[in-house]
Amino acid sequence: MSFEVSHLSFSYGKREVLHDVSFSLPNGSLGAVLGPNGSGKTTLFRCILGLCSPSSGNVCANGHDVAGLSVRRRAKEMAYIPQAHAIVFDYEVVDVVLMACGTDLGMLRSPLRQHEERAMAALERVGIADLAHRSMRQLSGGQQQLVLVARAIAQDARSIVMDEPTSALDFGNTVRVLEQVRALVDEGRSILLSTHQPEQAYLYADRVIALSDGRVISVGSPADVVTSRGVSDLYGMDVLVSPLFDDRARACVPASIVMPSKLTSRKQDSRVSGEGED
Ligand SMILES: Nc1ncnc2c1ncn2[C@@H]1O[C@H](COP(=O)(O)OP(=O)(O)OP(=O)(O)O)[C@@H](O)[C@H]1O
């Protein structure tokens, strides 16, 4: 297994925000964590990365107990793309990507030509090699996000954890990034990402983990989790999930918009509404 989270609980002070969370993600697969704001996705990722210490339970990454790994070893196992954040330092794009090579370098050692080539290859892969010598602070939020994806690629870790990697991206860049993510998975890496878009999880993920108020309420294939019942229960509202293109995609639509006077999806037994199918 790439990630194996077992009975994980975590508290900020006396407030427990993750409660007995368990799930696993097989090698070479893409896991999407869905959950409302404040449900604990970032905290869960920080525990997986070893940045927060759980009060109970444990996390294994690629067969290693994360709590027992050195920082350098953790970086070889897992790369991390945090949620969009303000860029404080005025680094060039290529320097941000080169930071991924830190695990190969000793203290105060400069990157070698091979590291620069690796950084440029990663930028090319996400289609922004032309931005290599621009300042990070002069990029749009979406471009900055692509740089962070390139940095994770350059780190060459076996697994990548991405906290809402497409939250700042327009439709085109969202698709470009998720196609890159899918390609990385198809090459054998494992990726765990969070998203607020159940439709995106359905399209790209192999496994979906639904987190509500710090608890896993369902985990399984996208077809089993991204349903009218599943999405409605997760977000506490009536949502109709309709298959599109022979169920290759699913559309999530608030029931209040499309059928305000009818029985709501939360009261329906059907897992996927057939209405609205293309
Ligand atoms: N540093 C902190 N100290 C105390 N409580 C925190 C801290 N960070 C997060 N929390 C609380 O922990 C809970 C989970 O927060 P977390 O950021 O993990 O949720 P999330 O699912 O990632 O949210 P979002 O989708 O809004 O990013 C929330 O109730 C939040 O208020």
From TrEMBL:
It holds the Pfam family ABC_tran. GO terms for molecular function: ATP binding; ATP hydrolysis activity. It comes from the Bacteria. Residues 3-238 form the ABC transporter domain. InterPro entries: AAA+_ATPase (IPR003593), ABC_transporter-like_ATP-bd (IPR003439), ABC_transporter-like_CS (IPR017871), Metal_Ion_Import_ABC (IPR050153), P-loop_NTPase (IPR027417). The keyword ATP-binding applies. Keywords: ATP-binding, Nucleotide-binding, Transport. SMART domains: AAA (SM00382). Belongs to the ABC transporter superfamily. PANTHER family: METAL TRANSPORT SYSTEM ATP-BINDING PROTEIN TM_0124-RELATED, MOLYBDATE IMPORT ATP-BINDING PROTEIN MOLC. This is ABC transporter. It comes from Tractidigestivibacter scatoligenes (Olsenella scatoligenes). The lineage of its organism: Bacteria, Bacillati, Actinomycetota, Coriobacteriia, Coriobacteriales.
